């Protein structure tokens, strides 16, 4: 039975979590542990892939490990599109969220088992599919707790997103320490336990805390559509299985060839998405002008996330292999820093700096930079975050880098993220054609998917170029795009047709 938004909101206890709906508390808890498991696993994933088998790793080449890490991130964002569609048309947000949590937990459990590559591949598949179901839908349920005119909604999302950064901040410390003191699988098990806690709490409290919100699909498939999509999905799955079997037997399907497929998808999906919207009869001339303005912003977003996401693979490997982690040699302190701890730097600076950046935009008032300028600033700081890594290379002469250079690199990138990321979400909503209001945000999420898909190829340049040349190339490319976007500022602003 379909309920109105008002009926769904009224079914939720509207107090019980710091003046917010009771359901926000359980969703905060679930998201915290889900992000704990994701970022904790990701903090040691690339090390696990390239570490020697005798040390408990998979013994892959570093380049392959970095490429797979990028593919993993790209596919999580791509499957979010499918997860959103399934929730809207088939499952409802709540069921999609729960199924996703079960799959994610199973994926982390698989990773904690010492069965090598088969366990690793099973884990990747389960977490990618589970994240696709959970990631877009938990935010949708949060929004469903409030009436549309409820002044608490924005604050509620701020509280909710704090759970993301809190989970991301704490997990590398815990998982990285367990991996260092015990082994990789104990670290992965901690991520699995975190996800299990989230799932248990959700199952126990969701009914009384979330009421009717997200129980039913918002636009369920008709009987005719069910038959149509069942045929399409069945044929597609069978063809995919046949393709995998054939290419495996022919020796064509390797990590390398699969990375090319993922990269192609990362480039083609946003193009298809954009053309579908632009050529739609439901989009008027003003909306088409705004879509044209969105193109350079989208490209800037891809470039930014390409650098930001390399913090989890390229910089992660750099921290482990080329950074002085022995504090005894730096400060006379008998402690060896786990390389995974560097993955906590990004969320730490986000939590620390976000209030100041937000207050600065508010204080500037009418002097607030335009949207294209904020995007350009994001590119500038991202580019500088890589270029700054060249400085110690000029005087290091093969010695290990001081870890403060990595901290500085992460800090600069976070400043860029706080300029670009919130602005990107906001402008995506503002520039969205009315007929594609929800899908425009999906297009924005594809900036990250496309970036990581492209990274699957970019990271292969590290070995032939060397880190110094690589940092210079990628950082320099970001600075070039920064200049181009600044020069396009007036054109983009004009094409936005009154949107700022």
Q: How would you explain this protein's 3D organization?
A:
This protein is mostly helical and 500 residues long. The chain has two domains: 1-220, MFS general substrate transporter like domains (Growth Hormone, Chain: A, Up-down Bundle); 274-500, Up-down Bundle (Growth Hormone, Chain: A), CATH 1.20.1250.20. The protein is 77% helix and 1% strand. The protein has helices at residues 5-10, 22-50, 62-91, 93-112, 116-144, 153-181, 184-210, 223-249, 255-278, 285-309, 314-322, 327-331, 345-364, 371-387, 390-396, 403-431, 439-458, 462-465, 467-487, 489-495, and strands spanning 16-17, 20-21. The chain has a two-stranded antiparallel sheet with strand order 1-2. α2 packs antiparallel against α7. The chain is globular, with a radius of gyration of 23 Å.
Identify the notable features of this structure and list them briefly.
single chain, 500 residues, mainly alpha, Growth Hormone, Chain: A, 2 domains, two-stranded antiparallel sheet, 20 helices, 2 strands
């Amino acid at each position: 039975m379909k309920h109105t938004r008002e009926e769904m909101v009224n079914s939720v206890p509207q107090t019980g979590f710091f003046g917010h709906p009771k359901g926000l508390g359980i969703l905060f808890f679930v998201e915290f542990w889900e992000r704990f498991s994701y970022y904790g696993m990701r903090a040691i994933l690339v090390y696990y892939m390239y570490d020697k088998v005798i040390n408990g790793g998979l013994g892959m080449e570093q380049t392959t490990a970095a490429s797979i890490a990028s593919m993993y991130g790209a596919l999580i964002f791509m499957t979010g599109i499918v997860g959103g569609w399934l929730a809207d048309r088939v499952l409802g947000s709540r069921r999609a969220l729960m199924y996703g949590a079960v799959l994610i937990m199973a994926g982390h459990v698989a990773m904690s088992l010492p069965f090598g590559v088969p366990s690793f591949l099973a884990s990747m598949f389960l977490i990618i599919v589970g994240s696709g179901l959970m990631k877009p839908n938990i935010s949708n349920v949060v929004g469903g707790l409030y009436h549309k005119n409820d002044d608490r909604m924005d604050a509620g999302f701020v509280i909710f997103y704090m759970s993301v950064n809190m989970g991301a901040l704490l997990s590398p410390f815990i998982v990285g320490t367990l991996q260092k003191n015990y082994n990789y699988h104990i670290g992965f098990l901690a991520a699995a336990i975190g996800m299990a806690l989230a799932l248990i709490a959700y199952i126990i409290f969701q009914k009384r805390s979330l009421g009717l919100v997200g129980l039913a699909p918002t636009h369920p498939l008709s009987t005719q559509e069910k038959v149509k999509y069942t045929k399409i999905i069945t044929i597609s799955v069978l063809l995919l299985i046949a393709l995998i079997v054939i290419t495996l037997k022919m020796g064509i399907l390797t990590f390398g060839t699969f990375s090319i497929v993922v990269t192609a998808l990362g480039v083609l999906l946003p193009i298809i998405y954009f053309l579908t919207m632009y050529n739609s009869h439901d989009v008027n001339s003003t909306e088409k002008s705004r879509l044209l303005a969105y193109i350079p912003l989208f490209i800037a977003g891809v470039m930014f996330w390409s650098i930001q996401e390399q913090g989890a693979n390229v910089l992660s490997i750099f921290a482990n292999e080329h950074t002085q982690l022995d504090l005894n040699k730096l400060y006379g302190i008998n402690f060896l820093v786990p390389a995974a701890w560097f993955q906590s730097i990004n969320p730490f600076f986000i939590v620390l700096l976000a209030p100041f950046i937000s207050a600065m935009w508010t204080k500037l008032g009418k002097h607030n930079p335009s949207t294209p300028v904020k995007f350009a600033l994001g590119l500038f700081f991202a580019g500088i975050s890589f270029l700054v890594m060249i400085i110690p290379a000029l005087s290091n002469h093969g010695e290990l880098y001081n870890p403060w250079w990595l901290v500085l690199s992460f800090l600069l990138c976070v400043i860029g993220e706080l300029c670009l990321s919130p602005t990107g979400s906001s402008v995506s909503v503002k520039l969205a054609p009315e007929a594609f209001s929800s899908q425009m945000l999906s297009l924005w999420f594809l900036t990250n998917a496309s970036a990581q898909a492209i990274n699957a190829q970019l990271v292969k340049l590290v070995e032939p170029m060397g880190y110094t040349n690589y940092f210079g190339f990628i950082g320099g490319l970001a600075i070039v795009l920064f200049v181009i976007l600044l020069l396009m500022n007036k054109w983009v602003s004009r094409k936005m047709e009154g949107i700022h």
